[in-house]
Design a protein that fits this description.
alpha+beta; Cytochrome Bc1 Complex, Chain A, domain 1; 2 domains; six-stranded mixed beta sheet; five-stranded mixed beta sheet; globular
């Protein structure tokens, strides 16, 4: 059962009671992400996410870890392009503890100078780790190439040089400027009573009354370009992409179905053609990255340099096929069932339900029933899928990024012409 309360200061509290569970997942969500940073702040949202676990006025970092470990709880946090989340999962008997800990770190973290310097080194290592993982790093490079100079194109972890210069004052100024009540959603799912949850969170969060600072998110331009990054690797890692749908776009269901058929699972066209029939890649898939005002539909593959051109030609052939031939009714039906199955399997997790509550509240300001999504999917036709493919797979919105031993490879803008 879904319930919602808005506290006097504007914080939204959403819960969903799932009677058969003995656990409860709790999250503090903030409608602020890496795209909301100024250029000189690149990576600061993620930096603050780390620092909130490094000690409060009442607890050290070790105290926080030990208290959760002592009850078998799990906690974590993440920063995304448009939001930040601090969450934990415990048995329902320990809900008072987890609410107190999450409230404490969110409201009373001290940003100790020593901890700040230590965590800076951790994040610099994290940046290096991504750069040393080419199948991850090529996505970072692709987003930069596709969306620059918009902040949406910047890496969530930030720039190493800027991270070196973050100070306690910068962190606290950004925190007070960005984390105001109207951007905060408290979400809980599982064995939770809504009124009891309100009784526990309201005294902790009632004092939060910062003045709102307007966020101005500008839809990013799309850069149709080819970018090559030379690096000594065994494979060439590629990302090829185009404009996708936003989270609010009416055609988002259609785009989700297109993605599944194209490269979203093991029976997809790309996986079968490139990996299963020809053995050109171990990993190849398509993906959707959707945001409040924009989106991207992309393709990733890792291949030997001598098979890169053949792989790109096969991808282009499949893109052209989507534009010229309606998908079969069997493909359409199976793609819809694939999405529905993933949705309902995810619904068996209190973590997923908690996240879904918060994301729907942030994006739509309401609870979105599963039946509404089913209806949206069922309305999609094969003609609509082909029409969307014709609309988005255009040379003026296609970008390609290559990472690896690319010097001397004969790859040009021809592969963007579909």
């Amino acid at each position: 059962m879904y319930q919602k309360t808005i506290l006097e200061n504007g914080i939204r509290v959403v819960t969903e009671k799932i009677p058969h569970l003995h656990s409860v997942s709790v999250g503090i969500w903030v409608d602020v992400g890496s795209r909301d940073e100024q250029e000189q702040e690149s990576g600061l949202t993620h930096f603050i996410e780390h620092m909130l676990f490094k000690g409060t006025e009442r607890r050290s970092a070790l105290d926080i870890a030990k208290e959760l470990d002592a009850v078998g709880g799990m906690s974590n946090a993440f920063t995304a392009k448009e939001n930040t989340c601090f969450h934990a999962k415990v048995l329902d008997a320990h809900l008072p503890l987890v609410v107190d800990i999450l409230g404490d770190i969110f409201l009373h973290s001290v940003f100790d100078a020593g901890e700040l310097d230590r965590e800076r080194q951790v994040i610099l290592q994290e940046i290096t780790l991504v750069e040393d993982t080419p199948d991850e790093y090529v996505h970072v490079l692709f987003q930069q190439a596709f969306w620059e100079p918009n902040p949406l194109g910047r890496p969530i972890l930030g720039d190493a040089g800027m991270v070196q210069n973050f100070t306690r004052k910068m962190s606290l100024d950004y925190l007070h400027r960005s984390y105001h009540p109207e951007r905060i959603v408290l979400s809980a799912a599982g064995s939770v009573d809504h009124q009891e949850f309100i009784t526990r969170v309201e005294p902790l969060f009632r004092s939060l009354s910062r003045m709102p600072h307007p966020i101005r998110r500008t839809p990013p331009p799309i850069n149709a370009r080819l970018a090559k990054y030379s690096k000594e690797l065994e494979q060439v890692h590629l990302c090829l992409g185009t404009r996708g749908t936003s989270l609010m776009d009416e055609s988002r269901y259609c785009c989700g179905i297109l993605n599944v058929i194209f490269g979203g699972n093991m029976s997809s066209r790309l996986f079968q053609e490139v990996r299963e029939r020809r053995g050109l890649a171990y990993s190849i898939y398509s993906f959707l990255s959707s945001h409040s005002d924009s989106g991207m539909l992309g393709i990733y593959a890792g291949v030997r340099p001598d098979t890169l051109e053949e792989t790109l030609e096969l991808i282009r052939r499949e893109l052209t096929r989507l534009k010229r031939e309606p998908i079969t009714e069997a493909e359409l039906r199976e793609a819809k069932e694939h999405i529905k199955g993933g949705m309902y399997l995810s619904a068996e997790s209190s973590d997923s339900r908690m996240s879904r509550l918060a994301k729907n509240e942030i994006q739509f300001g309401r609870f979105v029933p599963y039946e509404e999504i089913e209806t949206g999917l069922d309305r999609v036709t094969s003609e609509q899928v082909m029409g969307l493919a014709q609309e988005i797979f255009q040379p003026d919105s296609m970008a390609l990024v290559l990472l690896g031993p690319v010097d001397g490879l004969r790859v040009d803008h021809t592969y963007l012409e579909v």
